[in-house]
From TrEMBL:
Keyword Transmembrane helix attributed: yes
Biological source species: Rhodococcus oxybenzonivorans
Ranges where the Mammalian cell entry C-terminal domain occurs: 122-292
Entry keywords, A to Z: Membrane, Plasmid, Transmembrane, Transmembrane helix
Keyword set includes RNA-binding: no
Phylogenetic classification of the source organism: Bacteria, Bacillati, Actinomycetota, Actinomycetes, Mycobacteriales
Domain Mce/MlaD: 40-114
Bias-annotated ranges (Low complexity): 439-454
Location of the region described as Disordered in the Swiss-Prot/TrEMBL record: 414-454
Protein name: Mammalian cell entry protein
Pfam families found in the cross-reference section: Mce4_CUP1, MlaD
Coiled-coil region: none
Length: 502
């Protein structure tokens, strides 16, 4: 069959159009190159859930389609989607794969949102972990919850709920807008701080559990608080009086502290030293407090009843039982000699001696065994000494004498006790018999006065404010330690501590 040249040209043109149409249809509509992997590469995306994603879902990058979803496979951790990407578009590897809904019918797609503008880029075999993916909130549980809430409303009450909601929220549009905006900011900040927010929610669990377990205690506390407020309401006048008088009491307390300001530091400073001493001698103080009740009981034995029927006056009688007076004899070693002892009538203040006075005989002597020489050293257990200086030194206690016997224990005139050497008991003398020898008297006594010739006694008027008194000779005397520099000067307890006038 012979074809004309015109027909052959038509057939050639038709064949060319057919081939072009098939190529265009296969390349752009049937996507044959993508099916065979030409110009494509695969990327795996790990998702916490499928998020409604399905096979053939589109993939967009900056609003343009760059691929499709080849497959979605569920896993134990969520789902894995295999993506077929267009190799002509370079997408940074640091990207977030976000699953979104394109329409209300649930058409899902993946939007690639880059967090970096430069490489490295996605390539064949790249993996986008679940930490770099987001999926939309499943709306099905929300719809189920809303359906349950609506079902819980009694029939015919839905209109009432809508009316009351309208009354509650009518005119509060701006306030609700601010509330939603603030909630949006809160959610945004919580999303930006996922780890601290998650930790806060996790930590709230034990706290809320503890509150649930202590609900009875909380109820009791609330009930007691209610009772307290009720009592406060009943005693409103008393509370008001306290509030009205409280500032005045506070002012008085402030004035008191101002008055104590110049003296309190001195007192506290002195108490510091006293506290240190008390801490050092704490065992001795404890022993004193232990034996004090027994000592008071012993002192009570001095008083004996007075038998009125046997001629008594009926008043109390004190019986000291002094039959053992001067037995054993007195200790004189370590004290002033009799020639330097002061008369009891002296009123001036003599200078203190350089050495402390105590019974300075050996520690194992049977005389005055509870004297100062046998005091225990609190800071040096096992050591005994009469003074703190000896306790704190490396030296041991050294006695000053042996307190030898001097005459009869009772003092009579003529005893050599008045001539003894200071610090020692004087020369030893044999003890006289019961009927012989003379007794010693202090040097200040002079010649013994015959009994029956008592010394004359005189009285005088004394002014305690000025310290003046009139002697038996008619002259006026003044005690300088009592007299004040000014008759108008007021002495208070503050001046006693500070030494300055108030």
């Amino acid at each position: 069959m012979m074809l004309s040249s015109f027909v052959r040209v038509q057939l050639i043109i038709f064949s060319i159009v057919t081939v072009i149409s098939l190529v265009v249809m296969g390349a752009y509509y049937m996507r044959i190159p993508s099916l065979v992997g030409i110009g494509r590469y695969e990327v795996t995306v790990q998702l916490p859930t499928s998020g409604g994603l399905y096979k053939t879902s589109n993939i967009t990058y900056r609003g343009a389609d760059v691929g499709t979803v080849l497959d979605v496979v569920p896993t134990q951790q969520g789902a894995t989607a295999t993506l077929s990407m267009n190799s002509s578009v370079k997408i940074p590897a640091d990207v977030t794969a976000e699953v979104h809904s394109r329409s209300a019918i649930g058409e899902q797609y993946i939007d690639m949102v880059p967090t970096a503008l430069d490489g490295p880029y996605l390539h064949d075999g790249s993996l986008i972990p679940a930490a770099q993916t987001t999926v939309p909130q499943d709306i099905a549980p929300m719809l189920d919850t809303a359906n349950k809430n609506l079902a819980a409303i009694a029939p015919g009450k839905l209109s009432t709920l809508i009316d009351e909601s309208y009354k509650a929220f009518n005119g509060t549009g701006p306030d609700l807008q601010r509330l939603l905006d603030s909630a949006n900011l809160l959610v945004h900040d919580a999303h930006a701080n996922v780890a601290p927010t998650t930790r806060l929610i996790d930590d709230m669990g034990p706290f809320l559990s503890a509150q649930a377990q202590s609900s009875d205690d909380i109820y009791t506390w609330a009930r007691n608080l209610n009772s307290l407020t009720a009592q406060a309401r009943e005693r409103d006048e008393s509370i008001r009086a306290i509030l009205q008088k409280g500032p005045g009491a506070a002012d008085e307390a402030t004035k008191l502290f101002q008055q104590l300001k110049p003296t309190l530091p001195l007192l506290l400073g002195n108490l510091t030293s006293l506290g240190q001493v008390a801490a050092t001698y704490n065992p001795s103080l404890e022993q004193t407090l232990v034996i004090l009740p027994q000592l008071m009981s012993m002192l009570n034995t001095i008083g004996v009843p007075n038998d009125v029927h046997n001629g008594g006056a009926g008043g109390p009688v004190l019986s000291f039982n002094l039959g053992n007076l001067n037995a054993p004899e007195n200790c004189t070693t370590g004290y002033l000699p009799a020639s330097e002892r002061r008369d009891a009538s002296a009123i001036d203040a003599p200078p203190r001696t350089t050495d402390p006075m105590y019974c300075a005989i050996p520690q194992n002597a049977p005389l005055d065994v509870r004297g100062a020489r046998n005091l225990p050293c609190m800071e040096h257990p096992g050591k005994r000494a009469p003074t703190v200086a000896i306790c704190n030194s490396d030296e041991e206690y050294q006695p000053k004498g042996t307190n030898p016997w001097i005459g009869d224990p009772l003092p009579v005139v003529g005893n050599p006790l008045g001539d003894q050497v200071p610090g020692n008991g004087g020369p030893a003398q044999p003890a006289p018999g019961a009927g012989g020898g003379t007794q010693a008297a202090p040097a200040s006594y002079g010649t013994a006065v015959t009994p029956g010739a008592p010394a004359p006694v005189a009285t005088a008027t004394y002014d305690a404010k000025t310290g003046r008194y009139q002697g038996h000779d008619g002259a006026t005397y003044e005690l300088s330690s009592v007299a004040t520099s000014s008759s108008n000067e007021v002495r208070t307890w503050q001046t006693m501590l500070t030494g300055r006038s108030a």
